[in-house]
Design a protein that fits this description.
The complex is a heterodimer of chains A (421) and B (135).
Chain A (H helix, E strand, L loop, with lengths): L9 H9 L7 E2 L2 E2 L1 E2 L10 H14 L9 H21 L6 E4 L2 H14 L8 E5 L8 H10 L2 E5 L9 H6 L7 E5 L11 H7 L4 E5 L18 E5 L10 E5 L1 H4 L12 E4 L4 E3 L13 H17 L1 H20 L4 E3 L10 E6 L4 H12 L1 E2 L1 E3 L4 H10 L8 E5 L6 H18 L1
Parallel strand pairs in A: 3-15, 5-6, 5-7, 7-8, 8-9
Antiparallel strand pairs in A: 1-2, 4-10, 9-10, 11-12, 13-14, 14-17, 16-17
Chain B lengths: L4 H7 L13 E7 L4 E10 L2 E10 L2 H14 L4 H15 L6 H4 L15 H16 L2
Antiparallel strand pairs in B: 1-2, 2-3
Helix pairs in contact in B: 1-2, 2-5, 3-5
The chains are: A alpha/beta (421), B alpha+beta (135).
């Protein structure tokens, strides 16, 4: 087997890496080691080339005109929708193109309120590990619409346990909106268990972090709504998905109004287009949607099961390697529920300094900061044994990373510990 | 190179850490991208800054910047401090600045090459600016 990967031969792995030109870049004289995949993944040439070809030779607005370009663009756009539907085991009319996870959640909260599904005094249940995208819209709109918000509690390591899920049952939530994987602790949240406990609630899953390496079968998991972004799975920025069960989407008032989403418009009133178009007002990010389709083609081509295996092996190695360093404090779970990313701190060194030196001296890209999850930082502080700086360093892998990348990271961390004394 | 001996030494300085009871002015600053916080305490005599201390945590760049800033503004008038702020900010934004005014603050000259770290350097300076504006 390959020295780089347990799932691809050396040749296959080299070909994959060559598809991502940034991986051949030198950063401060060193080979780029990209470990900021949880923020956004690198982009690959096959997807960009196809998007360029579309933009240059087939581009036009969609759905509106009868000319050849409009027809080609519309077919491509709808093909992309089919690909996403297949990817999630959904129907094409349940797939709505939006700009990303943040827009997806904002749309859902507003639509649920406008449709009379989420009402004053109802309860929305979130978890304490949500990033701001699945926290701020709910919290802010609760100030205007007077529904209540409760949380599935995280423990001092930032972990969501089955006990804490069960104990939230008492809130009888109308809506449960949780992430599929924490972007800070890397924990895979037991969505199947949450569904089992909250049978009668509307279940919204924020798939931003999970979906790049874990196939989500919306039917099997009985998810009511799923939102995610394309850019964390090698697709372009500015494109994302809202999946919704057909019978629920049919009850939802759209969040955005405008062209294309209408059926009949008079000066006095409006009726809406059929699904999914009623949720896609205005000219959408056509090339972005098509790019997401191409990205799914690419992931399928190299094999989604293999991606999962590669990410899983690398995550395990990353976690084990970090746990061996006695000057590093690691957050989140250390068991099987952990995947793809690790948050940590070097005792006595601020995360920005760690991340800066990793980049400058070793060419390693990591993320430092509160990872758009400030409330979770206060929980990690509670469980921390060091002088917690209020933020962490995060290293996250994707399928194009190798064990060598992680070895370089460890070497860098040892250097930093020595440098800061 | 940001992590010079000068910056590393000043990042570890402890003598300006702490609180001034009965401070004439207290100002809090925050770096929204990383959550770093700083509180500056001031004593004034008429228009002169006679003592400054700070509480808070942050990266080596922001800590060193805070220590050097406090060292430089103690004894100066508000007007002189405002001139310093302007020049320090211009330096890291790659604009024209008066080197002769800045003294040891020029040790942070390289920060301008690291756009993501400019905010770290500016955290105490922006907090100072706010404090003097509302004095």
């Amino acid at each position: 087997m390959s020295v780089y990967s347990t799932v691809w031969s050396d040749e296959e792995f080299c070909n994959i890496r060559n598809d991502f030109p940034a991986l051949s870049r030198q950063i401060n004289g060193k080979r780029l080691v990209y470990l900021d995949n949880a923020a956004s993944t690198l982009k690959c040439k096959p997807v960009i080339d196809k998007m360029t070809e579309f933009y240059l030779n087939h581009y036009s607005n969609i759905h509106r005109a009868v000319h050849t370009l409009a027809s080609e663009a519309t077919v491509e756009y709808e093909n992309a929708r089919e690909k996403v539907a297949k990817f999630l085991n959904a129907s094409a009319n349940e797939i709505i193109f939006t700009s990303g996870t943040t827009m997806g959640i904002n749309s859902l909260v507003n639509s649920l309120i406008r449709s009379g599904i989420l009402n004053p005094n109802d309860t929305v249940l979130l978890s304490q590990v949500e990033h701001h995208a699945n926290l701020v819209p709910w919290v802010r709109l609760s100030k205007f619409y007077r529904y209540k918000i409760e949380y599935i509690q995280a423990d001092d390591k930032g972990i969501i346990t089955n006990e804490s899920i069960l104990s939230a049952k008492k809130y009888k939530p109308k809506v449960v909106s949780v992430t599929g994987q924490s972007n800070v602790t890397g924990q895979i949240i037991p969505v199947d268990y949450i569904r089992e406990i909250f049978k009668d609630s509307i279940l919204i899953i924020d798939g931003a972090q999970l979906i790049p390496h874990e196939k989500i079968d919306v039917k099997k998991l009985d998810i009511d709504f799923l939102v995610f972004s394309g850019h964390k799975m090698i697709a372009p920025t500015g494109i994302g998905i809202i999946y919704g069960k057909k019978h629920l989407l049919e009850k939802l008032e759209p969040f955005l109004y405008g062209g294309e989403m209408i059926d009949k418009v008079t000066f006095e009133d409006v009726t809406f287009n059929i699904l999914p178009y009623r949720f896609e007002a205005g000219t959408p990010h056509i090339a972005g949607a098509i790019g997401l389709g191409y990205a799914i083609d690419y992931l399928d081509y190299i094999g989604f099961e293999k991606i999962k295996e590669q990410v899983s092996c690398l995550s395990k190695y990353l976690l084990e390697s970090l746990l061996k360093l006695d000057f590093v404090e690691v957050y989140g779970p250390f068991d099987e529920s952990h995947l793809s990313l690790v948050s940590f701190n070097i005792d006595g060194v601020h995360p920005h300094d760690v991340s800066h030196i990793l980049d400058e001296n070793f060419g390693i890209a990591t993320r430092s900061g509160h990872h758009c999850a400030q409330p979770l930082m206060s929980i990690l502080k509670r469980g921390s044994k060091i002088d917690f700086p209020g933020s962490t360093v995060r290293a996250s892998v994707y399928f194009y990373n190798s064990r060598g990348d992680i070895d370089t990271l460890i070497e860098g961390l040892k250097y930093i510990k020595k440098f800061f004394g | 190179m940001v992590y010079s001996e000068f910056i590393m030494d000043y990042s570890k300085l402890r003598k300006f850490h702490g609180k001034i009871e009965n401070a004439h002015k207290v100002e809090e600053g925050k770096n929204l991208s990383c959550g770093d916080e700083i509180t500056l305490y001031f004593l004034f005599e008429d228009d002169r800054i006679v003592d400054v201390k700070f509480e808070g945590h942050g990266c080596a760049v922001s800590q060193a910047s805070t220590n050097v800033m406090i060292e430089q503004i103690i004894g100066k008038t508000v007007w002189q401090a405002v001139e310093l702020i302007k020049n320090a900010e211009n330096m890291v934004l790659g604009k024209e600045f008066d080197e002769s005014l800045l003294g040891p603050i020029v040790n942070f000259y390289d920060v301008k090459n690291y756009p993501m770290r400019v905010k770290c350097f500016l955290l105490p300076w922006k907090t100072l600016e706010l404090a003097l504006k509302n004095k």
